[in-house]
Design goal:
Layout (H helix, E strand, L loop, with lengths): L13 E4 L4 H12 L5 E4 L9 E3 L8 H5 L4 E4 L7 H11 L7 E7 L8 H14 L5 E6 L3 H11 L4 E4 L4 E2 L4 H12 L6 E5 L5 E2 H12 L4 E4 L4 H8 L15 H8 L4
Parallel strand pairs: 1-2, 1-4, 2-3, 4-5, 5-6, 6-9, 7-11
Antiparallel strand pairs: 8-10
Helix pairs in contact: 1-6, 3-4, 7-9
């Protein structure tokens, strides 16, 4: 059943950029469950979502039309090379007097880790902060799905190389979506919030739990990350003291993904 009938853009005052991504889908589902009308914008609509409008934040086409009339904009769209530019394109399309609350999804550690993507994400934060548009920034730790993708990719064969010493604090996707909705109900105070999962583990510890739960036996060899990048990955820069007790642990998430026979 479609969430919105007719032209959703003129019936909704909530917009999600990057709404077809993993977090965008989770946020959209949460809003729909609460009966909250919203619109999704992205480059393509392969899933034939009814409450969708087209825009391309990289090419800067359709952005002004997508953002018009919206009062809450969840900016979840991300691009490995162009994060700062798409943030600039978005804020430039928002009318200064439109009383928008712009909520930007960022990552814990973007201000500490000298990683190219993180630097661009941090620059995107600055573009939003200096735009004059009322905003809230939410930084989250890594999603379980992302950690799983890393581990299953690095350990695809019987012998795998893994950067064992990365310290992470995986969090459940739906908890981040719930936090975004909670922040959208507050007045935009120009604050950066952080949220993380309830346990801090090294990538090696998480890989061991993965092998036990999935039944995929692996010989895991360490892949060192040298220099300042390696130090910041290992020293807790990807973690936060603001813990979500609602989030499933890494093991609990894996137990759903790989239920015991």
């Amino acid at each position: 059943m479609s969430i919105v009938q007719g032209n959703p853009h003129h019936m909704s005052h909530i917009l999600i950029t990057g709404g077809t991504g993993i977090l965008g889908r989770a946020l959209s589902a949460q809003l729909a469950q609460n009966g909250i009308l919203h619109t999704i914008t992205s480059r393509t609509n392969r899933a034939q979502i009814s409450n969708w409008v087209p825009s391309d934040l990289v090419k800067n086409t359709g952005v002004r039309e997508a953002v018009s009339e919206n009062k809450i904009i969840f900016h979840l769209a991300s691009d490995l090379k162009n994060d700062e530019q798409i943030a600039r394109n978005l804020v430039a399309a928002i009318e200064p007097a439109s009383n928008v609350h712009l909520i930007y999804m960022s990552i814990v550690g973007v201000d500490k880790v000298p990683f190219a993507y993180y630097k661009k994400k941090f620059a995107a934060e600055q573009a939003i902060k200096t735009s004059g548009i009322p905003f809230t920034i939410l930084r989250a730790t890594q999603f379980h799905e992302f950690i799983h993708q890393i581990i299953s990719t690095f350990l695809a064969g019987l012998i795998g190389f893994l950067p064992k010493n990365i310290v992470s604090q995986p969090i459940e996707l739906k908890v981040v979506a719930q936090e975004l909705i909670r922040l959208s109900r507050l007045q935009p105070a120009g604050i950066t919030y952080e949220i993380g999962g309830k346990e801090v583990l090294t990538l090696h510890q998480m890989a061991r739990i993965w092998t036990l739960q999935s039944g995929k036996r692996r010989l895991i060899l360490n892949l060192p990350i040298l220099g300042e990048l390696g130090r910041t990955f290992a020293n807790g820069s990807l973690t936060t003291s603001n813990v979500s007790l609602q989030s499933a642990t890494w093991l609990q998430w894996l137990q759903k993904k790989y239920p015991s026979k």
